[in-house]
Automatic annotation (TrEMBL):
The chain crosses the membrane at residues 12-45, 57-87. NCBIfam families: LiaF_C_term. This is Cell wall-active antibiotics response LiaF-like C-terminal domain-containing protein. The keyword Glycoprotein does not apply. The lineage of its organism: Bacteria, Bacillati, Bacillota, Bacilli, Bacillales.
Length: 242
């Protein structure tokens, strides 16, 4: 919907936002801009010392202060209101241009096409830890999201098919652990706002809004392989051989 907005409209919205930012800085003696800069500086310093107790406390307090300071800016409020108005206008216009689709009815044989329901390994949970079974289990691709808790997937108790097995996890706060057998090739694409990553022998400490990508040497030519795509707001990921 926003792609239909002319470039000039985007430019005017941006110009007005910049003017409001400058006006607040000049006429309000800094307004909430200075507190936002101070909170941002504290976020950076405390993240560098996140391994200490005071670092964790200062980080979360300054992050909350930074969010509230940014939301208190007139320019930010204007941009939020402008986005809501544009979205509402485009949505209203789209309801007046309803495209009618007349599907072609399938034949009787296609209507009776057999389907089998397969239970997933994990269900979507908000506040809970999830683990694969400790006994042998049948593999099914994983595609889940959650808010809090840990996710542990052990592939040593299942048989990966001669195909690409997929593990897709989108999570808020918590840790992810994935154990992969030695004979299975792996591709890992991980993104995180905050956290650490340990991929086999590679380690990344204190990730900050970054993405990393690894794959084993013969992944592209392997018949048995696992594709791992994960994203975390705050937490650690560990992928190791077992």
């Amino acid at each position: 919907m926003f792609k239909q907005l002319p470039t000039k409209s985007y430019n005017w919205i941006l110009i007005i936002g910049i003017l409001l930012l400058m006006a607040e800085f000049v006429f309000s003696f800094g307004g909430t801009i200075i507190p936002a800069i101070i909170c941002g500086f504290l976020v950076y310093i405390s993240w560098k010392n996140f391994y200490t107790l005071w670092g964790k406390i200062v980080f979360w307090l300054s992050l909350i202060g930074l969010i509230f300071s940014i939301l208190s800016l007139m320019a930010v409020r204007f941009l939020i209101i402008a986005a809501i108005v544009i979205f509402a206008m485009r949505y209203y216009d789209s309801t007046k241009r309803t495209d009618r689709i007349y599907p072609k009815l399938p034949d009787e044989e296609a209507l009776n096409e057999p389907l089998s329901r397969v239970e997933p390994l994990f269900d979507h949970t908000v506040l809970d830890d999830q683990y694969t079974e400790e006994t042998a289990y049948q593999w099914r691709d994983v595609n889940i999201h959650g808010l809090l808790g840990d996710r542990v997937i052990d592939l040593s108790n299942t048989v990966i098919p001669n195909d690409t097995a997929v593990i897709s996890i989108r999570h808020g706060l918590g840790n992810i652990e994935i154990y992969v057998p030695y004979e299975v090739e792996v591709s890992i694409h991980h993104s995180a706002i905050f956290g650490n990553a340990h991929i086999f022998h590679e380690s990344h400490e204190k990730l900050f809004n970054k993405s990393i990508f690894y794959q084993t040497a013969v992944y592209d030519h392997a018949t048995t392989r696992v594709k791992i795509v994960t994203s975390l707001f705050s937490g650690d990921i560990e992928v190791k051989r077992i």
